[in-house]
Amino acid sequence: MSKQASAAVKAITTISGVKRQQLADCLEITPQAYTNKLSLGRWTADELARVAELCGYSLAIVDGNGRIVVPVLPTTSVD
After folding, report:
1. Residue 31: per-residue pLDDT
2. What pLDDT is stored for residue 64 in this prediction?
3. Mean pLDDT by 10-residue block, N- to C-terminus, for the chain (79 residues)?
4. From CA 8, how far away is CA 64, in angstroms rounded?
5. Calpha distance 62→70 (Å, rounded)
6. C-alpha angle with apex 49: 47 to 51, nearest 5 degrees?
7. What are phi and psi of 73, to 5 degrees?
8. What number of other Cβ atoms are within 10 A of residue 27's Cβ?
9. Cα–Cα distance for residue pair 5/20, rounded to 1 Å
């Protein structure tokens, strides 16, 4: 992935008010590892889907008309 993914993560976490510790817990990593992931821009689709779900969103492949082509669901549920 890229730093664009990190920018999207920063945006949705800011909007939703989700804290760094919550994100680290969701990803089953330390807060420092989360910060490193954010700065390096290295994300899997599963990680992005988990973060999106935690923030109240969903991740999907969307066509040019805004229709969902393929939803990207996290492999584990975020509670």
Report:
1. 97
2. 96
3. 88 97 97 95 94 95 95 76
4. 19
5. 7
6. 70
7. -100, 140
8. 19
9. 16
d(CA 18, CA 60): 20
Written as one letter, the residue type at 54 is L
Q: Which two tokens stand for residue 53?
A: 């779900």
Query: Tokens for 25?
Result: 């817990």
- What does the chain look like in DSSP terms, one character per residue? --HHHHHHHHHHHHHHT--HHHHHHHHTS-HHHHHHHHHHT---HHHHHHHHHHTT--EEEE-TTS-EEEEE--SS---
CB 46 within 8 A of CB 75: yes
pLDDT of residue 2: 73
What is the C-alpha R_g of the chain?
Answer: 12
The pair of structure tokens assigned to 3 is: 């730093």
